[in-house]
Design brief:
This protein is of the alpha+beta class. The protein has four helices and four strands, in the order αααββββα.
Length: 223
């Protein structure tokens, strides 16, 4: 009888230790997953304008991956990774919705930081002439087409909020800082490099924190 009780206690201790080890393994796995996603979001969206690459990468593939596909993957992977519980019986952790939102917002913020970095490092000041104004007298965002004194177009166009305001019309000359590579949008004369560090840190912490919370919660349901 004493021997059976001792074996039972040892077995319970081993089971508890195995469960704790499995819990740590699951925690580290999800932590690594969300850290990789975080690095992908910030890296792709920041590098897109900051580092001159092929236009289809900088203006297409990188922003789509960083601001859309990776946040979607951060939501879908924990949902479909768990296979023991049938899909119909699973209870979706509401925390997983927040990485989807914060990841996308983080991508756009990091892209803005990359554009500021590009204008700071390789930007040039120029007196450019407004040759056309799009979406004037409409609810859409105004965009001014600019040309440098040598006739070369400044690409992309100057957007409302960056210098193409209601008072700026065709034929006027504006001073802008533009990217010779055409990856970062031009900014008006009042442009100064912004500070994105705190916002990126807060969004990144929320992305990883809520993702880990939701993933661990669903993993416990699976057990």
């Amino acid at each position: 009888m004493v021997r059976e009780e001792g074996e039972f206690a040892v077995g319970a201790e081993d089971a508890s230790e195995n469960q704790a080890r499995e819990g740590r393994s699951v925690f580290l796995r999800w932590l690594l997953f969300y850290l990789v996603c975080l690095a992908g979001i910030i890296g792709l969206t920041w590098l897109a304008p900051a580092v001159p690459l092929d236009p289809w990468i900088s203006n297409g593939a990188a922003p789509v991956l960083g601001a859309f596909l990776i946040p979607v993957a951060a939501f879908l992977v924990p949902v479909f990774w768990i296979r023991r519980v049938p899909h119909r019986q699973r209870k979706l952790a509401w925390q997983l919705l927040l990485p989807l939102v914060t990841g996308s917002v983080l991508g756009f913020v990091a892209q803005g930081a990359g554009e500021d970095s590009a204008l700071k490092e390789r930007g040039r000041w120029v007196e450019a002439k407004v040759v056309a104004v799009k979406n004037d007298n409409s609810n859409k965002t105004r965009q001014c087409t600019l040309r440098k004194p040598n006739g070369q177009e400044v690409a992309p166009g100057l957007k409302e909020g960056d210098g193409c305001e209601d008072g700026v019309g065709r034929g006027e000359v504006v001073r802008v800082r533009y990217d010779p590579e055409g990856l970062a949008g031009p900014e008006g004369e009042s442009w100064k490099p912004g500070s994105y560090g705190v916002v990126i840190a807060v969004l990144g912490t929320a992305f990883v924190g809520f993702g880990m919370w939701g993933s661990m919660r669903m993993s416990r349901q699976d057990q």
